[in-house]
Structure formats: C-alpha cells, structure tokens
Design a protein that fits this description.
alpha/beta; 9 helices; three-stranded antiparallel β-sheet; ATP hydrolysis activity; six-stranded mixed β-sheet; single chain; globular; Rossmann fold
Length: 245
Amino acid sequence: MTQGENILTVKNLEARFDGEEILKNLSFSVNKGDVLAIVGPNGAGKSVLFRALLGLIPYSGKIEWAKGLRVGYVPQKIAIDRELPLSTEEFLKFKEKDEARIISVLKSVGIGSEHKNNPEHHVRHLKQHVLSQRLGWLSGGQMQRVLIAWALLDNPDVLLFDEPTAGIDVSGEETIYNLLKKLHGGRNMTMLLISHDLNIVYKYANNVLCLNKEMICYGTPSTALDTESLTKLYGGEAGIYKHEH
C-alpha cells in the first residue's frame, strides 16, 4: 500500500440511538498517511463515528476499509480503580507475552525517556517504576502512553485516538501530540483523532472533518475552518476557537 492511497471510504453513514439521529448522511475518505482531525461540540457524534468505524454499533450506509488493514484504537480514558491489583506489566501481557517487545514499545511512546541515554538504567526504570506499578496508580500522562503502547502492540496501520489528552495538563498535552507526530513520521501511520483544540488541529492534522451530527466542513484546516463553519459548529462562541499563528 503506497502513500496517498485510499484506505477508508465512508458514504451516507447514519446512526441512531433510541430513535434519535446521531449521525446523518456523512461521507468522507481517508488516504494512507493522513492525519484526520474530527472536531465539533459535545454531542456532535464524534465518538459515535469512531464506534461505527470500529464496527461496534449498528449503522446504515457504507464503511469500507482497505483489505488487510490493522486498525488500533486509543480510548479517551479508562476508569481503573486505584486498588485494582493489576500491574502495568500484567495488563500489557494480556496482549503480548514477550517482555522485551513490551519494553521496546514503552520506550517508543516515551515512557522513562529521561533515562534514554543510559539503556540499562532505562530498562531498570521501566521495570521498577512502570511495569511493576499498579495500573490505577499511573499519572494521567503515563496512563495515556500505556494505552497508546497497548494499541501499538498490534502493529496497526491506522490509529484512532479519542481526545488523546483529556485529563492531562497543558504541558503534558503538547508532549502527547509530539509523540503522535513522531509515531506518524516514524511509522508512516495513518491517524484519526478527535480533538477539542483547534490550535492542535492546525499544527498536526492535514485534513479536518467538522461534525455536528452531519458534516459541516471537510478539507485542509486552513481552508475548511472558516468563520462560517466555526459559527455552524460552535454558534456565538466561534470566536474563542479561532487559531493563533
């Protein structure tokens, strides 16, 4: 599969819950190597779109992925009880038994990166402070990276991120998005991400889908996110979503 080749086609997608229309007549496509951001207000159907793309909910219309494509998903967050006696290592070993591969993937998502210049110390840090740690005791940023590592263990061609920085402080947000940029560049990975921050969309995405139950705009951020589209998405609050250069 070559760069720029179409890998996802969505046509006339509709989804309903309890008789309420959540997605209406939605059509778009994604090419290999794209970073597509999905933006819109709360209740716009962004997470519902992801569930439909993953085949988790009933829908009408067409969703067609390229054959043989591996699709990974990173949820916004998962609720883990602090007292749950499950370590990070045990969690990751549900998917991958090879500890060396787990450590390699954790390194790739930047966990313990402050020790990266000393490989032995880096591995020891991962084993003592991450793998042996209870999953519920991880910080928000660490947990997000572990969830990304979980998805990467499947060697996906496409990653879906549902607000990858929800609940993370501002400095941590920038770091997570830099990680996504690194994964995109290093692995030539196609990404679909739901984001609430249009500055992030302008910085990292090459295409944007504006969604409010139906498509409001679609295209490059610089052309699609005009004043009219932002007003349709966010109403009178559109001004606060304008980006800064």
